[in-house]
Amino acid sequence: RFCLPLVLASLPVMATGEEISPALQDSWGDFWLFRFFVNAAGYASIVVPGFLLIQYFKRRNYLETGRGICFPVIKSCVFGSEVKSVHQEDGSLPPRAEPTESSTTRQVFKLLFCAAGLQASYLTWGVLQERVMTRTYGATETDPGEKFTDSQFLVFMNRILAFTVAGLYCALTKQPRHGAPMYKYSFASLSNILSSWCQYEALKYISFPTQVLAKASKVIPVMMMGKLVSRKSYEYWEYLTAALISVGVSMFLLSSAPNRHASTVTTFSGVVLLAGYIIFDSFTSNWQDALFTYKMSPVQMMFGVNVFSCLFTVGSLLEQGALLESIHFMARHSEFTAHAVLLSVCSACGQLFIFYTINQFGAAVFTIIMTLRQAFAILLSCLIYGHAVTVVGGLGVAVVFVALFLRVYARSRMKKRSKKLPPGETPVQKV
Description:
Elements: H1 3-9, H2 32-59, H3 62-65, H4 71-79, H5 89-92, H6 104-134, H7 151-172, H8 185-202, H9 208-216, H10 219-228, H11 236-256, H12 268-291, H13 298-320, H14 322-332, H15 334-361, H16 363-385, H17 391-420
């Protein structure tokens, strides 16, 4: 039981100025790497038996030999209907509505509704996320209060509400016939849990504006991975915007380094956690794209992923004894309870707004709205929590978002031009 702490104690501190403060880490149980391995062990205790059961049913040829009341459940979880759509696009998103009678005014109101819903959901979510992970609860003149440290419980809260909302939506509306084996959702679920956990944990080591900029610049590692692994080729404007993003992020990070303020120092732990977030999040989106080869709606995807997310997180929390501890924290601090519930509501509503916006206006408009949201999130965080941003840092933020808008504009131009070309022809100049 003492081996893992001893191994962790031997790890060198890789970044100058990184110190594990007593407020953050009163024991090894609060160290992020230790908690990561403990959480992973909890997930493995569910994944490994599940994997063995799936292999058992497949080897037994259960579809031919199975009978009884459990047969439909096992068939759905392990085998599914195995009916895939002919075209991958059929299952990715429902066809965008093109109302014939809708006026321009009605479309404008719809767009404003989508933009307001996305901004309200995710801006509130971002502000609350930073509040929960970086501030204390129950502080008085004599008592400094206590911080909530279990990021996994917050992930569980988010997923349980998203599961409920998606389940109700699927029950009340007509959905495509489901054909994917349920166990395939578990891969996206596991990576989604880990990416969310890394996102919450990173806020203990880096500022929220830094996290937002890092998430906005994940296009760079995605391009690098595509070049190395898939041998993809990119247009010159993609290289240009990626370079602008890296320059903007560098300006922001370097300008905040001399301040050495606890909320703006980018530590090695924060960088590692952000890298983990980007890796796990990239896997989630790619696996979900592969699952859409089965005919399903986005809300069915949301429901399937969150079923396993709830199973993994509640199982791990119970094994660690952290579920009761977090519930006791909620009982002690009603303010935290309100924040955690509102955080979950914003997360679930935000996902529904994403589906509706893409369905009505397409991915380009959605990307613009979310890019604006990231800029507003940095501004709100600086105003509410007092993050100091220098002139150079502000200029770096502006460079990042100009580059992101250029990417959206160039991509939309390419799509319009490709639609106008006859089949088999490619444009000489892309932009």
